[in-house]
Fold these 3 entries.
Entry 1:
Amino acid sequence: MKNIKIIFSLLILFISGTIDAQNKQMIEDAADYFDNKDFKKSYELYNTLYGQNPKNTEYQFRLGFCSLFYPEKKVRAIELFEEIKKVDKSSDVDYYLAKAYHINYKFDDATQYYEAFINAKGTKIKNEDKDLVEDAILGLANSRNGKELMAKKVVADIKNISSPINTEETEGVPIISADESVMIYTYVGKKSTGGLLDDNLKEDKANGNYHEDIFISNSTSDSTWSNPIGIHSLNTSGNDAAIALSPDGHTLFTFLSDVKNPGDIYISNLEGTQWSEPAKLNKNINSEYWEGSCSITSDGRFLYFASERPGGLGGRDLYVSMNLDGDWGPAINLGPSINTKYNEDAPFIHPDGITLFFSSQGHKSIGGYDIMFSILKENNWIEPISMGIPLNTTEDDRYYVINAKGDVGYFSSNRGGVGGKGEQDIYMVTPGILGDKPILALLKGIVFVNDKVSEAKIEVIKKETNTEIGPYYANSKTGKYLMAISPGSGYKIKITVNGIDPVEEEIDVEKLQKFVEIKKDFYLYTAGFESKKTQISVKSILDSLINPLVNADSFKNDANKVSTTIKEESVKTTSVVPCNGSVIPDFSQIKGKSLNDENIYKQFLSIAGSFCADGLVFKVQIAAYRKPDNYEYNHLQEFGKPEIVNYPDGISRFTQMSFSNIKDAEEARRKIIAKGQKDAWITAFIDGKRFTLEELILVNFKNKSIN
């Protein structure tokens, strides 16, 4: 029995010693996380320690402090500091209780305790209290702003964009092309280059951290995002963040910091499908101080960026630099209309060139950074407007971008309670802007040379001032181009490919009153190449978008320009009478867009596939040649002898079969291609007059003849 008692006593001592050792380690770890501002991990450990010893006021205070910076636990901050206030009547507790009420949107209570703290400190403030008093003064202003904005809460739909982009890890700083076809963002997690690394970027699986990498995802046909991949040419073992993308998606600005470099802004260009090695921007942009966010105008002339360089109005200010002879000129502070004595960051200049989004701790912030926007009017920025609640929260809200149309915005946040998947996620909000939507023309499409995609240079001249904007480029692998054109002037557009006569067009958006997206493909041909695609001018597409009942003469002129008319004297009003109960299709969703886009073509078939009308037939065109004798069609004999018509433009067009609706014609077209015909397309005829499908879409099948 005595031996058993001795063994039991030793066991108790062993267990007690183990618990003490475990608690000692937990206390050290909790303090380390607290000092390093990892408040989530610190909260979890102090929660355990406080549960074991609820009378320990230090654990209680630190747990409450962690709750202030842990969005999912911020409600508990009120409970903890209210308990502390019951036994500690000092004014310092008023400060922390005010913070707890503030972050939980209890702005009246927060105002009461902020004022109590400020009044208690008086006018002769001790040095050790100055930071807290200054923060309390800001918090008091934030709370008053919050009460005002809560009274006029904005109706907005905020959604986590979810997988495959958002994971259990960290995703942030979303940047998009103007048409939302591409999203590039910053990722931190298990896929980060180099894995877990120490401060010297050496492998450290025990205590290391993951570093920032740049990932890319593309919009899919069903409005979701493709599986993201890292951009290997940009990612290093240091911190690599994507911070801005030109509206056309061809120029990417990145932030790089490593052991030797605390952080600067770099630029990379899309060459085909590869991003070039980042090049550091000049000393007008990068100083010896922090620069870490920026945005470029759609014409490439101005770069807005944030910097902590001295001489500003606050710790972090917004600046603008103009491109001079191919490089960035001196940085100019945006002044007191934008910058405050607090921090401003994360500028985003909309493709319209006059709407600037940014994040600010001043202005009408309700706490931390809030998203604001200002509009440039008569060369001055109007007073910034808060995007309001619920987009803005009492936490930090930054890195806001919107599409060209202005109906959708994206941002990153660690806010709790809205479907978050990880430590920080990317969110989508509609509408993208309050009030009036941006006004501009978004021109996009593909450049073809001899009916194959091609790179090209696109020059745009503003006729009002005879100044060039851009230039823009069509991608060498896909032929895709994208550019935003602001209203207030007419423009000349010139498409140039080496060794080929350029294509030139004009577009007038001087009096444009709304956003329009113009889908336009450009076709260039070498001498002697005979297969021609019908081109409808940008002007005609724009006219049809602004006025669906566009004047027939506009189309007639286009037809003359590309030599597709039959005879000018045959022009007359033509209408179609739907058959079998058909209703004339509504093409408003795809009007002006190219049927060369597979997704648009599928949408077209779903809208009009079964439509039929008296006098309307569809034929499959298999060839178009200036010298028809050069074309052999023996492989298509099972579909009947082609109908060959010599048109006034000197081109003979070959068609096969005739159908009353597009669905049946499309089925035949696919069979013809399956027999080895490289290309075949559908053309329409109304009372014997030839129409391209794009032309029919533009006039909604009714009341206008364009041949």
Note: The chain has four domains: 21-150, 157-430, 439-529, 536-707.
Entry 2:
Amino acid sequence: MPPRRSGSRLRLPSSPNGGAAPGAAPPFLLRLGLTIAALCAIDALALALAFSLAADGLLVPAALLLVVTTAVNWIFVSARAYPVRWLAPGLLLTLLLVVYPLVYTVYLSFTNYSDGHLLTKEQVVAQMERQRFAAESAADYAWRVYRSPDGSFTLWLTDAVGKSFLASGEMGLQAIAADDPRLGPVDPEDGLPRTIGESAKLSRLEAVRHLSELQHLSITAGDDTIRITSLDSAARERQKYTYDPIRDLLTDNETGTAYRPVEGTFTAADGATLSPGFAAVVGPRNFGRAFTDPQIRGPFLGVFAWTFAFAGLSVLLVFTVGLGLALVLNERRLPLRGIFRSLIIVPYAIPGFISALVWVGLLNPFYGPINLGLESLFGFSPPWFSDGTLAKVAILLVNTWLGYPYMLLVSLGALQSIPDELYEAAKIDGASKRQQFRFITLPLLLVSVAPLLIGAFAFNFNNFAVIDLVTEGGPPTPGTATPAGQTDILISYTYRLAFAGGRGSDYAFSAAVSILIFFIIAAITAFNFRFTRSLERVSENV
């Protein structure tokens, strides 16, 4: 029932009793209750996550999380912030999925975060302080174990001169007196008491069953620690490293060497280092490594050059093939033109990753149909995936197959938009077919297609899928210190640096390369915008 107007006031229909239905809560109270319940759930989750981050020492992320949570509460509670509610989900997702990865990538590029420098400084110090060493004067003990009814263990230790001790986590190390009242009757087989207080002696077989628990025993004896090292002996060990937080110094108690943290690695005065290191800010050196480190410079520059060559040649081949086929299909006298148009865009209808894997099978050097045909005709079977040059040819071939249908459709539409009167006037002036293509078709075609070509260049600059599916960046580049394959482009090279198991985990350097790629793509985009405006001015003058 539509609302009724009375004068200038708008009257809304009401229920027969003049108000809300009996027993029904007003809508605003229901919305308020749902809002408060949702905010409580979000706050509880945020507080739990912030507490976990703070416990791990990540105070800045924890603080940012609390600030964002507070802002969300304010947006959905304050009437003044009502319009922002509709923008808040998008802003939060932008912060989470765009801004945070971008900021974190920039941060990583200025650190040494890589294999061997994955832990925090606190974690490395704690790991070092858990290490032990056996001093030359430290004694080894033969041991037997006694177990009490509550499951605790007591060790009977005998040193090299036959002196006996009792040891446990609670009592530490104590010498045994012959008249100790805790000692029970002697076992004639080994001369040791059968019991010590309430603890009963375990046989060798029973001790083996509890060996994993016994090896975790840590018995303090002065500055030393006694641990079971084998079925026969227990060793007296000492803490190897001690950290002084005031002087920021890690000291080796065995040798007396002092280590100071230098760019994420504890380093001695003579240059000796300890492993593992810890993540630390090292400045812009990752950006310089690509051009100054001789072990990285060669592979990186090779990958850099091939990335531009791959993107440029891919666009050139795709445009050439697509435009050539478009010129053929644009010819009205071509028989069965509709059938040819349908068949020729088949690669565009098949998912790219399937087509790429099909081409891998076709180019297989042992049983691929292409190689079998070449071998039967010419006696030559190209090693597509083991020769660097042929691997690049294979990549360009597959990428051309995947990309030409799109360029065909674009070029065909652009060709059909060129007025026929221009060609008729050119014929009257005596222009040949080549001259018509050069001075009419190509310039007018580029007005529409050139921005797409620049976009295609930017796309192929980061075309990770084709590289990884066809060659996986291979074949390997011999004599390199980085996992750079001969067909790797910058994005696949970055992936292998950061994530390829067993071949590289240099996250900081890969982050720096990612930022370099970003600036290159940004420059291409800026050029695209400027070039597009130039073409728009050209089209206005045509």
Note: The chain has a mean pLDDT of 84.
Entry 3:
Amino acid sequence: MDAKSEHIKVNSSQKLNSTEQQSHSKPSKPFSVAEAVVKILEGMGVQYAFGVSGGAIAPVWAALHQSPIQVLHFRHEAGAAFAATEAYFASDRPVVVFATTGPGITNALTGLLAARWEGAKVIFVSASTSAPQRGRWACQETSTYTMPNAGIFTSGEIFHYATTLESSDELPEVARRLALGVGQPGGFVAHISIPTNIQTSSLKTSLPLVNLSRGVATVTEEAIAECVQLLSEGPFAIWVGFGARGAAKEIRQLAEKTGATVMCSPQGKGIFPEDHPQFVGVTGFGGHESVFRYMQEKRPWHILVLGTRLGELTSFWNLEMIPRWGFLHVDIDSKVPGTAYPSVKTLAIHSDVRVFVKALLKYFPEYPGTSKVPLLPISKRDVIYPRAGGKVRPDVLMNMIQRVIVEQSNAVVMAEVGNSLVWAIHLLRFAKPCRFRISTGFGSMGHFVTGVVGAALAGNGKAVAIVGDGAMLMNSEVNTAVKYQIPAVWIVLNDARYNMCEQGMTYLGFNDVDATIPQADFVKIAQGMGSDGIRVQSEYEIQAALEKAMAATGPFVVDVVIDPTEIAPTQSRNQSLISQGATNY
């Protein structure tokens, strides 16, 4: 077993003032560092830059506007970073986030951490205080005198690569590092901080020309042969995660050739069709009881894990999810296999999932018929009819979202952390990959109320966010969508409380806590910002409201008054919290 990758080639030998370079760009004056940085980003395939301006970042902001990169000015830096994360997944191109000094940087950090956890490719460009002004209490001073350096301006847990550009002489190396990161498998989040006076300084070195080639982690034939031997010993299951989204076709072929049972993580919904007879259900948070019945009644000899960390909200580290003889775990991150279940025998395979499955398919002949497929437990969906009175039940809303949006459109559907997330995981069904986006890792509120804007823009079509009222009040970017006429749709579960918190506290045995919110009218708020919207107060109004939202050409808010007494299927999460000591019993 090994990992091979193609190296990124960066050619910085051509001088900016050379005749050959002039024949292409014909500069009338020397490039500034800000202009050079933007040129480098453009050469890496960047199409979008999201952020909030400020005096210290003005030269870079101006240079972005003068380039082919589309610049969107957001209301908050965290929203820009969340939107950049989802724009990356919608376009498969790196996205830039820009911010000014001080609070501009710290505001963006939550969204950038989400990008890191999700595996996006995002390049953060910020300003820092010019050297002569450092230590003198400059406005929003950003220097080692006023802000921590480690982790924010250096590589570490937040950024794969981070540096402060103190001279144009550093540009070739910065470009090389960025190119390596953008070309590597998996995510890459970088931070380039540029002092204001350096941004406007003239370029004194060559302008790097970046040639990108994608690296692919591969696996040896010996490792493949070992996997084939183990999987041929007896019945096995395939556990599909978001990291396998590029291998949907191959995974289906493997399952149908071998008769393997398939389950998926909450983020992996749709990679393997949820209506396929070999699909047993979703694991973890909001998942399906049918998975546990399968593991109890037909426990497989091995489980082939493809592209999931098996973290808490995917597995809850439940012992019932352990196969008889262990896991075969494939991931492009060599640190992932074996982490979730450290005491269980695990064959770790460091590889791109699609490359691995394609290699594996060569060893399994076509299997005629379906007699090899066992009769599996299935996740049943109850038929729920609308009622005339009362507030809207979440399961009725989800059933209508399934009919109007999932089945009758190609829109990307995303769900914000909270009860909206667990209802969507549990009740929505997807038959195609890359149509469902959630965050079960970092899980920040505000991710998808803002991320929907980036997804709709970069995906060049509708994107729908199912969100709670708490998240919508916290950090939405409706105003940004209005400015750029982005067809984002927000479906707000408006129950006037942080209901996951309220219901969870009751389950854990804590009483007399207050998680209520004064009920907001999100249609009036949206209309006040120039968006259209509609309020849903009964179950018979849902279908027409969703159809109107999907027909709208601009941003649209559907404000649904939800029955707060309906209990979301969060028992597995609450049981996990109890096992960790978060209980009053």
Note: The longest helix spans residues 103-118.
